Amino acid sequence: MNGETQNNSDKQADFVQRLIALKRYEQPDPHFEMRNLAALREKLADTAPGGSWADRWLGWINIGSVPAFRMVLVTSLLALLSVNFLLLDSVPTLSPDPVSFVEEDVQSAPAQVLQVASTNDSLDVYRKPVFVFEYPSNRQPIGPLQIGPSSVPVRFDY
Amino acid sequence: MVDESNNVETDSLQPPDTVLVEQARNGEYSAYEELVRRYQRRIYALTYGMTSSSEDAEDLVQEVFVKAYQSLRSFKGDSSFYTWVYRIAVNRTINFLKKRNRRRGDVSLDDVDSAIERDPALVELRARESPVRDISLSELQNKLNAALETLSETHRTVVVLFDIQGLSHEEIAKIMNCSVGTVRSRLFYARQQLQRELAEFMP
Predict the structure, then answer these.
(1) Predicted ipTM?
(2) Residue B63: other Cβ atoms inside 10 A
(3) Which helix (H) or strand (E) holds B153?
(4) Quick check: pTM over 0.80?
(5) How far off is chain A from B84, nearest CA to CA, in Å?
(6) Chain A residues within an 8 Å CB radius of B25
(7) For B145-163, how does the pLDDT look when each residue is reduced to its tens digit (9 = 90+)?
(8) How many angstroms separate the most distant Cα atoms in chain B?
């Protein structure tokens, strides 16, 4: 009984295959080949084999021997670049408004502005603040200027 | 069936695919055109079998050969040109079907060769004592296409490549980048599904 059922099932599977195979008699119209060749010639007229660099990249991703591996590689690279950009955005920048104060104990010169480029305390961990002095002076150093390993006796008289 | 050893089924006077590929890479378009001539009907049969639309099939054939030409430099010759271009065709057609299924298109069928009348399967069908003996060719065509459309894209691909195009399990496995076992299993389940869909024709 089981053998008969199996036999019938095999027979049906075989007939389905033969029935579907009838589709091979469906043919494109007789001008298909010439039409296709002409259309391709037109499309590829200005294209060199290999195409643009973008095509080559896409081709490399899609049609490789290990496409999944290549896809993962490219995705990882893009993810890495994105993370890098996000980290760059979170780095603190210098304060845009410098703080000014007056140097009071300078007598011979008018009050000068002392600028502190940055007063952001959080930056102290990473770097010292940068001071920019603006102090016009016509005074000359007194005594000879020595340059050597021991000392540099330079005196400025303010 | 295509002979994989020299990639062509044409006579020995014809240059093998590998030579034509090399010439095409060096800019000889006529060499590429010869490759297109060799495989365009097969690729059309594949795309038509999967889409059941002659217009879509023709567009896809062009897309496939444009893509193959643009990617010719990335073709390393690990497989034959024929397998490689089939792989492009299968991937493109599956992608196309996934998009098309969201906006179901019209079906436009090709003409049927008159040789079908002598096919043993049709002769057997016509000899039956059942209503299916009077079915017209276009009705049969529609029923077969409708049954194929019920299959998933991958199952349909296996059926088209094996049952309609006559490729071997090994060739299909290379094209679809899967094991021979997977091909056999897909074919088994696809036929079961088709058997249910075409129950009225079963002996």
Answers:
(1) 0.82
(2) 17
(3) helix B153-159
(4) no
(5) 9
(6) 49-50
(7) 899 999 999 999 999 999 9
(8) 62
